[in-house]
Structure formats: C-alpha cells, structure tokens
Amino acid sequence: GLIDLSCAYLYQVHESFFDKRYCFQLVERALPCIATVTYLAAEDAGEYEDWISILKPMCVPQMARAPKVTNLRDVRSIQLTISEAHRLPYKLVPNPYCLISLNQVKVAKTKIKSSQEPVFDETFELEDIPPDVITITISVMNKGKRTKDAEVAEMTWI
C-alpha cells in the first residue's frame, strides 16, 4: 500500500526486535487514534543510511521545531539498561521478556528468560528519536508457546 509520509514518523528499530540489523519503521498517523506501522530492513549500513537520508526529510513530524541556529542538527538519543525483575509468579510468567516502546511504538526487546527472578542485564542505545516522542514504556511480557504473548506489567515515563 501507499504510505503518506507527510503524517509519518521514522523510528529506529533496535536489532534485538527482529534479531536483524539495519531495520527501521515508518509509523503513519493520519488520525490521532489510528497508526499504521511499516517495517523495513536494509542489507547493510550504507543502504540503511541511504534510506534514512531519503525518507527522513519527507517525514514531517507534527511537533517539529525550527532550529534556533542554522546548520544545527537536533539529535535525540537515550540509553536504557534493563537489569532484572523480581518475584514474578512462575506459573503465570514462565518465559518473561521486556518490550521497549516510544509513544507506544515497539522499538526493542530483551531476550526471553526462564526464571522467576530473571536477570536481563541488557543495554539499548536508541538514537535519532523523533521529536514527537513524549512517552517511554517498558512492558514485562510473557512469551506464549501456543498463544499470543501476554503483557504482565507496564511502566511509562512521560
């Protein structure tokens, strides 16, 4: 289908999400309550940079601000470390993992652990975050064997 880039946001996808490097996503928000997500992957770093440099100027974030200084680039990044979880009910959460979202857009996840007190100890460096991002959410999920993954807990920063 077609993607209207005038109301689309470009998000990085951490390699942990698909176990693949050079992925990104276009999140089209034509209406505030509806988002269409399109995932894309490049073969290598050069192709990835080419795609980003072509698409990014065409995506017009609604909250974009003009730079105060010409030739100044505003870069937003964050480093998150997911350490561990405590007292998870093992019968309800036998295979926990954490999911990181920016504005409810999934961008990274930890490896699945099989423990009541899982130690993830994973660090995520998310770069070039769109200026419209106002929330960061970490969700504790349970990997279902025959069912859909279930959310167990969630924490959101505004």
Give the % helix: under 10%
Q: What string, H for helix and E for strand, traces the elements in order?
A: EHEEHEEEEEE
Beta-strand content: 35-45%
Find the structural class using helix and strand composition. mainly beta
Mean pLDDT: 88
CATH topology: Immunoglobulin-like
CATH class wording? Mainly Beta
CATH architecture, by name, is Sandwich
> Separation of termini?
33 Å
Low-confidence runs: none
Q: What is the count of DSSP helices, taking H or I runs of 4+ residues?
A: 2
Rg computed from alpha carbons, rounded to a whole number of angstroms = 17 Å
**What is the CATH homology-level superfamily?**
C2 domain
Strand order of the largest sheet: 6-5-8-9
Give the number of domains.
1
Large-scale geometry: elongated
The counted number of beta strands is 9
Description:
With 158 residues, this protein is mainly beta. It has a single domain (5-62, 75-157), classed as C2 domain (Immunoglobulin-like), CATH 2.60.40. It has 2 helices and 9 strands, in the order βαββαββββββ. The strands form 3 sheets. A 4-stranded antiparallel sheet has the order 6-5-8-9. A 3-stranded antiparallel sheet has the order 1-2-3. Strands 4-7 form a two-stranded antiparallel ribbon. The longest helix is centred in the first third of the chain and has 11 residues, at 45-55. The two termini are 33 Å apart. 18% of the residues are buried.
